[in-house]
Task: structure prediction
Amino acid sequence: MMLVFLAVIGVMMVIAAFVALYSRDVVGAIVAAGVVSLLASLLYLVFGAPDVAMTEAAIGSALTTVVFLFAWSRIREIASHGERRDEEVPE
Amino acid sequence: MIKRVFALALIVVVAFFVFPLFAGIGERTDLGPVATAYLEEGARALGAANLVTAVVVTYRGLDTLGEVTVLFAASAGVALVFGTLARRSQVERRRRPPSELLETGASLLLPIIATFGVFVFVHGHLTPGGGFQGGVVVASGVLLSFLGGTLTHTPHRLLGALETVAGAGYVAIGLLGIWLAAGFLDPRFLPSGEIGSLFSGGAIPLIYVLVGVKVGAELSGVIDAMRHRSDVS
Result:
C-alpha cells in the first residue's frame, strides 16, 4: 500500500517535471515546477524528515514559485514596453 | 577538430582521477567514528532536546552561517538588479487593486501565518523546523500582505535594522561560544535548563530566533525589491 502511494507520487513528480520543461505556457510551467517541490516535500515527510519537508514546502514550492512569477510578469512588462515605446503604455 | 581532441583528452584525464572515488562507492553498513560519537553523545552533551537540533545548530552551525551569507548576497544582488532595471525603463503602470476575496483572505490569514512562523522558530529546538523554516513562513506572510494590499508601505529601515541586529547577534553568539564554552556556536554558555521547556538547550533557542528574524527580514526584502520595482511610477 505504502509502496503504491510512493510510486504514484513519484510518477506524478516526473509528469510535473516534464510539464515544467516542455510546456508552452510559462505560468503553467512555473506552477508545475512548484508541484514537483510540493510532492517532494510530501515524500520527505513520509520518509521521516519533517525539517527538510518544511524547508522544501516553504522555499521550493511557495517562495520560488512566487519569485518566478514576479520575474515573469516583470519581463513581460519590459518586453511590452520596449515594443510600443512611442505609444501609450498599456494598463 | 583539435578542440574536440583536447576536450576528449580532458574528459579522459578527469575520469581517470575521479574513477577511484567512483569505484569506492558502496553501501555502508556501519557509521563513521564522528557520526557514532554524535549519535551516542551529541544531544546529551549539548543539553539539546534532540539530535537533529544539536547537529544543525551546533556541530554544523557553520553551514547555517554560510547559508545566511549566501542569502544575504542573493538579496543584495536582487536589489541591485531590480533597482537598475527600474531606473532604465520608466514604466508607468498602475497596479490593479486586489480583489475583495484576496484582500479579505489575506487579512484573515496574515495573523495566523505570522504566529505560526514565529512559533516555528521559537520552538525550533523542540519541534521540527527552526530558524530558516520559520523565517520563510514569516516572509510568505509578508508576501501575502503585499498581494492583499494590507501592507502598502514597506518599512525599509526596520527591515534593514532587523537584518543587521540579527546577523551581528548570530555571529556574536557564535563568538561567545568560543570565549565561554568549547567552540564556535557552542550553546553551553547558557544553562541548559529542563529539556522540553521553552527556555532550554542553552543558547540554541536564541540562535534559532536570530536566524529566523534574519531569514524573514532578508526574504521579505527580496520580495519587496521585486514587487516594488514592478510598479515603480
Summary: Residues 92 and 233 of chain B are 5 Å apart (CA to CA). The two ends of chain B are 54 Å apart (CA to CA). Chain B touches chain A through 27 residues (CB under 8 Å).
